[in-house]
Known about the structure:
The structure is a single chain. By secondary structure, the chain is of the alpha+beta class. The chain starts with a helix and ends with a helix. Strands 2-4-3-11-8-10-9-5 form an eight-stranded antiparallel barrel, surrounded by four helices. The protein has a two-stranded antiparallel sheet with strand order 1-7. It has twelve helices and eleven strands. A hairpin with a 4-residue loop joins strand 9 (272-279) and strand 10 (284-290).
Amino acid sequence: MGFYGQAMGNLESKGIRARERRLLYMLEVDARVRLAALSSTLKISKEACRQKIAKMEKGAVAGYQTIINLPKIGVESFRVYVALSCKREERQAMLDFLMQSKKIWWVLETNGEWDFDFVVWAGGNWEFWLFWKEFYGKFGDIIKNCRINTYTELVFLPRTFLVRSEREDSRGIRRYDAKQRISLDKKEMLLLSDIAFRGRDSFAEISKRTRLSIAYVSQTMRKLEKQGVILGYRALIDRNYLGLDYYKADVRLSSTSKLKALEEYVLGEPFAIYIDNVIGGSSFEFDFLAVSSDHAKEILDSVRAICGSSLNHLEFFQILGEFKLAHFPPQISARAL
């Protein structure tokens, strides 16, 4: 059957067949896609589309993210990996701290070399250092090893395994970077905070929550899209519901000669979901989904084959659990109120 067949079998068992997979894919590429477009593509009525979406929202769809280019508005991301040597109680104390901190937007438990992987929001190196000083002061005695990366670019890749198509164009691929920063006012920040996890809501719903006029909401969202602050809107697909495991691969190369080929491979791999360009980490990093450890091994073996003798080291680990995921810094949104 192959790994793709296994993945499709998992989806079939959840009632997610070809039409539902196409619907999921369209919502992931553009969560604000109109019912008319969905109806036309799926060849079913708008009401049937509405019902299918409602059903998906009880299972495969965890929400709708507005992809906000945070570096463009002065918010940088620092990814921290820690290996611990401690008892369960001390481990839980660290996890509780990360869960409560307003500067943390992603907390993951992993296997392999690292125990936890978390991402910190900061206005720059100094602000991150202040966080790190506090964190290490509290938990430095239980940290056996750590690594810190600074994001320069995060590439979001659509889940093309849903439709078994290659990425023939750039639809659904978003590049999150800080090539040119801009300043936003309080109302714009308030709007971004509100729609960060409600990317499919209507202008009227957003207006009601924020008390901003419908005209302001629609005009400002379009303006922020043109400015590259809003990169798009996507359905957050629950990979656990789909029966998929989450892996991260860090590739260290002896030269840059294989970087282009490696990126082209990952861009074309249907189960790849992110490319992470960082300072302080590996030569190339990417995240991917797999139906099993054998499937993950096949993807990693492809990486080894592409890199050949240029490969110095390939580190990978599985994401065991996701404890926290935020989409907009609460300290920024609070200042906008």
